[in-house]
Structures are given as C-alpha cells and as structure tokens.
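Checklist before submission:
- one chain only
- standard amino acids only
- sequence pasted in full

Submission:
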Amino acid sequence: MDLTELLEIAEKERAESKPVRIRCCMAAGCLSSGSISVKESLEKVTKEAGLADKVEVCGVGCMGLCCQGPLVQVDNLVENNSSTLLYEKITPENSASIVASLNGGEVKVQAGDITESFFTKQLPIVLENSGKVDPERIESYIAAEGYQALYHVLREMTPSEVTEAITRSGLRGRGGAGYPTGIKWATVAKAKGERKYVICNADEGDPGAFMDRSVLESDPHRVLEGMAIAAYAVGATQGYIYIRAEYPIAINRLQIAIRQAQRLGLLGSHIFDSPFDFKIDIRIGAGAYVCGEETALMASIEGKRGTPRPRPPYPAQSGLWGFPTLINNVETFANVPWIIRKGADMFASIGTEKSKGTKVFALAGKIRNTGLIEVPMGTTLRQIVEEMGGGVPDGGTAKAVQTGGPSGGCIPAFAFDTPVDYESLAQLGSIMGSGGMIVMDETTNMVDVARFFMEFCMDESCGKCIPCRVGTVQLYQLLSKIREGKASLVDLELLEELCDMVKHTSLCGLGQSAPNPVFSTLQYFRDEYLALIHETTDNAGF
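Returned file contents:
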C-alpha cells in the first residue's frame, strides 16, 4: 500500500457515492430504539420506489442527539439544490414518507433544524467523522482522509518530530488526569527496553459516560490510526485495546476495522512500505471499574487480577510485562490524526491557554437534549447546559452539574459561567474526568447524589488497600445514616475526617478520588446535610 493506492480508494469511494444519501444512526443508543428496522425499511422502500440508482441508504455512527433517536439524516446533493435534513424518532412505519418526499411526496415526520445551538456551538475534531462514515467500511474512512496522517508521519517525519508536534499542539490526556500527551510520549520514547507497548484504555466505566464507546462504534479506524502514529513515535511494535465486555458493538466494529486495516497493509508488517511494523490486539475486560486505572489495566492484560500497584515505577519506564508502555485513552488517540493532518498550531489555537483543543462530553441527566457533544475548551457550563442542552425539561431549574464521574464533584448553578477547562474545574472542587456530565434539577437531593457515588466506589473497590476497602464502606454507612435522619453533628464531623483519610491514604485514584462528590456537596450544599442532622450527639458514629 502506498499513497497513490490510498488516494485511489478514496477517489473510487467518492465517485461511487450517489446524489442522495440517507444516513441512519447505528450507534448503541439508536440501535436500542430500533434503528436496524428503520434502516431495513428505508432500504426496502428505496428499492420499491425505483430510487436505488440515485439514493444510498447507509448505516453510520452516532449523530449526537441521542434523546431523539432513531435518527435519520438525508443529504440531498443534487446540483443547485443541495440540502440536509435531520429526522428524529423515526419508526419503520413512517420512514417510507422520507423516501417519498424525495419524489415530491409529503413527508409525515418532523425534521429537526440541524442549525440549532446543540449542533452549531460544537467543534468536531474527535467526532468529525461520527455520523458521516460507515464504521464497518474502511473505504468510507479512507474517503474522509483516513490514514493519510499515518502515511505522512511514516514517510515524511521522524519519530521525534511526531512527538514534538504532539507536544506543540498542547494536547493533554483526555482520560481525566490531563497529563501533557507529548511529555508522556517523549518519556516512553526515551525509555530503554527490548520492546515497547502502546495501550488504548477503552475501559470507560463512569456512570453516565458513553464518549469512548460512541467514538469506537462510530469511527474505529480513527483510533487505530492514532495508536499507530503513537507507536511510531515511541518505538512500539505491539498495541492493545483494553475494552469492557459491556461494549459488544464497539468490540465487533474494532475487530472488523483491525481485519480491514491488516488486509490493506495499514496494520502489520512494513506499513506503507516502510520499516515500521505494528500490530493491534483487543483485550476484553470483565467490567471492573478499577481496571480503568492504568496499573490495574496492565495487570488484567497480563492475565492477573486487576489490582493497582504503587507508582513509581510508572508505566513509561516499567509497564506491561516490565517493558516501557504508553497508555492513552480513546479520545486522546482520536485527536492525533487531526493534529497531524491540520497541524499542531491549528489545534493549539483552539481552547484556552492551558487547555488546548476540544473536549467530548456525554450530556445526560435532567436535561432536554441528552447526547454526545464536542466543544472547544473554555466553553462555559451555562452554554452547555442551557443553550446546547436546552435546559431542564418542563420548565425546571438546573441545580448542579456533576462532572468527572465518581472521581469528580458537583458544581452548583451559581458557578455555571465557569469555563470548562482543567484548571477552572479543579478550582471548583471537580475534575474534567473522561467527559461524563450529569445535570441535576431542584428535585435532586445532593446527599443522595453523594451516597450514590460512594456506593459505586464501595462496590468497585478492588479491596487491595484498607483505606479504600474499609473507608468507602464506612462513608457509605455514614451517608445512609444522615439520609435517614439518624445522624448527629458528630457524625458529620466524622464523615469529613474519613473523607480526608481515604483521599490521602488510598493506593490508587479510585480511593483517592472517591470522597470528591462528598467534599463538593458539603462545600456547596451543606444546608441539605444539616437539614437531616440532629443536634444531639447521642448514638454518634457506627
């Protein structure tokens, strides 16, 4: 495979495209609402109407507005009369009218306005192909400039130049910690070892989060390309994608994508006729939340129990089987091809001074428009919740936004003008996290919220260290006691002391961050705790 062959595939794909394209969302959210039947109905009606020569029905990935699925988008590219219409909540029964409208018939389903603020305020980089390419056809990805970035780095850049470009872009790890990606790559590149590994952490486990799943379901080749570029930069020849078994659609599409890339010589030996070899295998996790922690993840890949180990040594020096290992999450790798194609400076021009680029969020909870969004760093919470999300349904009022999953915090409504970036969220007692964003309204009890996340952390603790194994149980019991109106002020003091102990003495990030929802709710919604507290000190403690 060389560049000429790659461009020929892209040109052939574009030449065979039809003037009218009906895109049907085949991501998990729409599939659960019956989009397979919708797609089959559209194909049948198109054929019966004699439009198969000019109308193409194709399955694509996530279109973003998950609450309105199944979604169908019609791209009419007829010269001098091009248009795009997004149809919401389509059923097999009313899909026929969409096809009929192409022949001048009456359409009996409502078309949403795709210029609404939910879409226009987004800046797709990671999601630039989502909802557009067919995730099960490599030709569709290649036609969208796929694998051109990989060709460019292999034939025109040295590994150090690739790392320098990622460093200059300002890309930070999108898994939650926000560590500078270029520095991590440079560390692995400089590390000594007989072999090196690249791991994609797709063990997305935060409640309400579905960003990585959607990217893998919608644009799997993008992640493979990003991993291959990273492997070239750090000197690795083997990659692993660690993904939880609860994501069967993503797993299937990754398996298809890997086979297709291998068939075209875009993975394997002598990629693009260069000396570079790189192989990717999938490892399926059993769903343990702690395996999202990088040392536990590596232990699981090695066939051991997924429990964290102390650091240092860090994976960059001693990772998988003791060799230097680069670990980034799905969204981090998905940014890489765009940075190479468009330029590091272009990426660095987006966002804020310290938080460059965009961030993908899974918008959920008490919000009118739930779904997947990608916005420039620095976009305010108010813009996301009230403008893009459409606010709380039925005239309700947003009370707080929880970011960062069990490791994050609850941000009150008065702070909604805060820009979404790593530093600003940290100042509010929360974190960016992997990108879950859950909106709560005035009916939500914040003690319940804290108890919910503590119960999650308690259940998901691996049990290796005592502060997390025992402390999360005691914190959950105290929160339950408070919620039941049986606690005293002494219990509240004990709750805060235990939170501090668990945070500062736990082995890994799960335990260290488990108290964050409690800290933030105590900081901003302490009155809700006090309303449930008895003044007496009788029966305090356990």
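Reviewer check: The chain has four domains: 17-115, 145-348, 358-441, 446-530.
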